[in-house]
Amino acid sequence: MPQARARIPYLPPRIGGLLDLATNLWWSWSNEARSVFRAIDEPLWHLVRHNPMELLRRVDPARLAARAADPGFLAQFDRVMDAFSRALTSSDTWFQTQQPGLTRPVAYFCAEFGLHSSVPIYSGGLGILAGDHLKAASDLGVPLVGVGLFYTKGYFDQRLRIDGWQEDSDAAFDVGSTPLERLSGHHGDPWLAVVETFGRPVHVAAWRMQVGRVPVYLLDTNLDQNDPSDRGLSGKLYAGGPAMRLRQEWILGVGGVRVLRAAGVDPAAWHANEGHAAFMMVERVRELVAAGRSFGEAGDEVRRTSVFTTHTPVPAGHDRFSVEEVTGCGGDFWNQLGTSAEEAFGLGSQPDDPSPLFHMTAAAIRLSARVNGVAQMHGGVSRALWQGLWPQLPVEDVPIGAVTNGVHLQTWMSAGMRSLLDRHLGEGWHERVDQPGLWEGVLTLDDLELWALRAEMKHGLMSFIREEARRRWAERWKEAAHVVGAGTLLNPDVFTIGFARRFATYKRASLLFSDFDRLRDLLVNPWRPVQIIFAGKAHPEDHPGKEILQQVYSFTRDPQLQGRVAFVEDYDMHLAHRLIQGVDLWLNVPRVPLEACGTSGMKAAFNAVPQLSTLDGWWAEGYMGLNGWAVPPVQPGEDADAADGERLYGLLEEQVVPMFYRRSARGLPMEWLQRMKHALRIAGERFSARRMVQDYVSGYYAPAMRGEATEHARPI
Ligand SMILES: *Cc1c(COP(=O)(O)O)cnc(C)c1O
After folding, report:
1. Tell me: the pLDDT tens digits for 231-272?
2. Same fold: 103-311+333-345+362-405+695-705 with 437-687
């Protein structure tokens, strides 16, 4: 970590290990490591928004020196360093026990990775899922290597005007406050690989980010050696239209393989997480052809060793490019595949689409023997969507499976909940999460203790919201209405609903407002009041999404709703954390079947927050009656929005809100507490990233690492 070291002015040698800790994102999911950073300077830890590199850069040297001489601190520090070293080096991990002999890694390609809010190279669900995947892989000892793109401008910070219109600011973040380390290439060159695009060589540099045992290579083209128009390729996430996207995906796929080769990484299997990374497979075909194989043989070998996960249930969500663009971008590359141009581009053809486009998903499916969707229902939707590639098969036999997503427990479960479980299930329970029956144990959690914890987490959320509002009021807001809209009138004693996700139209953030009078009656009821907290960004180019956001925002300032609707700006992992722990109910109302999986409800459930959702994505398999509520399915002939809206109000009015306010003699909502416990039990049993990665290993990675062919029919 020479580069990170240089950014830190002073570090006493006795606690020099803090730098190792700060430069491996393992700290972010170790409560104990976080406590060490917090113990250095608690107010500063909060000011730097839990960024240890920033903390070490800014902390008063006298304070560090004092810590290095404080026996209590040193004991804590030594314990963490022991745990850290065990986490990185123990050789009796789940993977090593299950799959002895498989040591070459799986390369995991994804356009974005969301590990922690201090490394802002993610936009939302897909990136955070990928981050949780890496963390769980590290915990399980799966030899994974991540490959992604480095975005100097991250996603964007969200600023809402007083009229609720979202303005996207795109300040570049300071890489010096992240743990990223720039790799150097051969002969000290700043690049590791070169990729031709549009007839120009693009030099590809890489940053390394360490996630427990898992290294991640983030590709960067912002080098003097590159044409100015290529330097911006790693500037911003999902911005700049299809031409930019194609070039980014070309760099990710082709450049990613070459960077791994240059770094001396020799994967046994390759996983494309979403179609953005499909060119990775095409590049490997090219490599094998260059080594003497025929196009057919190369394709077979790539298939046997590739895994592809699709995340998108609607045709329009899948990237596709015109053959002219793809030809222009790749140039001579396409002549190096040992076959005709027609056959080469045929890799990306989609039989149901008469226009000659190159479909990234079709290419990834053709070059992967193992393909999956991200929830059981989404597996079915994907089989129907891609049946055209197997015209001879009935839809149920289309070989696309499903691995339901999960979330990383240590990342998303609050410290308070973990220590409650420590007391109830016994210390070290997280070592026993694979034991059948462990999670049954949460059904006997003490009601008083669980309810006290809920109150504490709710208070935490509301004071966080108030402090954020205070800061923004002081820094940039001009009108007091902002302060109300941001949630300063929220009351921790009131039933609180959370709704936070990307503002895409199908997620229907405004469904709750479809009948204003009915909603108002629900919210301002003096005996059983209800409040709702919204957060989320619209994609910078999603105009309809921005309009819905604006509409929702206008309700936050409507005096008729008495400050019971809040919108908290700048949804990121930090805010997500607070929200999923601090609300009473998680609300999710996507239009069925457009949510491939959805994960925020799982994060809530790991904090014993039940969900109310339409039966889409994970909820179609996760709703078990006692862990929340489901909006019943739309009947044939019904208008989906009207029917779902009507049933949503009905559920809230007749079941959910009354249950929350129904109290025992001790003041406890006994039925509600039952739902909370079942939400936690089912999340623990079935929706952890640990279970997800275990499923990938046994059904997908291990056979791909052994290069096994499948029995599946091949796509045409
Ligand atoms: C979990 C998460 C998401 C994804 O949530 P969905 O339920 O899948 O929409 C998006 N953004 C942030 C910041 C998250 O933490």
Report:
1. 888 777 666 788 889 999 999 999 999 999 999 999 999 999
2. yes
Centre of ligand 1 from the C-alpha of residue 712, in Å: 34
Residues 495, 574 contacting (CB under 8 angstroms) = no
Lowest mean pLDDT among 152-166, 445-459, 589-603: 152-166
- Beta-carbon neighbour count of residue 76 at 10 Å? 17
For 684-711, give the DSSP string: HHH-BHHHHHHHHIIIIIHHHHTT---S
Contact 504, 545 (CB under 8 A): yes
- Residue 481's nearest CA partner among 575, 579, 559 is 559
Residue 150 in contact with ligand 1 by CB distance below 6 A: no
What radius of gyration, in Å, describes the C-alpha atoms of the chain? 25
Which segments of 458-529 are extended strands (E)?
A: 495-500
Enumerate the domain spans of the chain. Answer: 2-85, 103-311+333-345+362-405+695-705, 437-687
Please give the pLDDT value at position 431. 87
What sign for the dihedral angle of Cα 366, 372, 377, 378? negative
Contact 456, 420 (CB under 8 A): no
How is the beta sheet containing 530-535 ordered, strand by strand?
565-568, 530-535, 495-500, 585-588, 611-614, 628-631
At the fourth CATH level, the homologous superfamily of domain 103-311+333-345+362-405+695-705 is: Glycogen Phosphorylase B; (3.40.50.2000)
Nearest CA to ligand 1 atom 6: 598
Q: Residue 374 gets which letter from DSSP?
A: S
d(CA 259, CA 288): 17
- pTM of this prediction exceeds 0.85: yes
Q: Give the angle 265-268-269 at the CA atoms, nearest 5°.
A: 110
Cα–Cα–Cα angle for 189, 213, 431, rounded to 5 degrees: 170
Beta bridge partners of 269: 106
> Could you give the percent of the chain with pLDDT greater than 70?
98
CA–CA dist 307, 511 (Å, integer):
37
Task: Give the position, in ligand 1's atom list, of the atom nearest the Cα of 507.
Answer: 9
Distance 411 CA to ligand 1 centre (A): 13
- Which residue's entry shows tokens 């329970």? 429
Task: Determine whether the shortest distance from the Cβ of 581 to ligand 1 is under 6 A.
Answer: no
**SS3 state of residue 358:** strand
Q: Which helix (H) or strand (E) holds 270?
A: strand 269-273
8 A C-beta contact, residue 8 and residue 42 = no
598 lines ligand 1 (CB under 6 A): yes
64 to each of 8, 564, 712, 714, how far by Cα in Å? Answer: 12, 44, 60, 61
Listed in sequence order, the residues at least 6 apart from 75 whose beta carbon sits closer than 8 Å to its beta carbon are none
Burial of 466 (0-12, 13-18, 19+ CB in 10 A): middle
**What's the pLDDT tens digit per position in 106-127?**
999 999 999 998 898 888 899 9
Contact 573 CB / ligand 1 (< 6 Å) = yes
* Spatial distance between the Cα atoms of 579 and 536, rounded to a whole number of angstroms: 11
Return the CATH superfamily for domain 437-687: Glycogen Phosphorylase B; (3.40.50.2000)
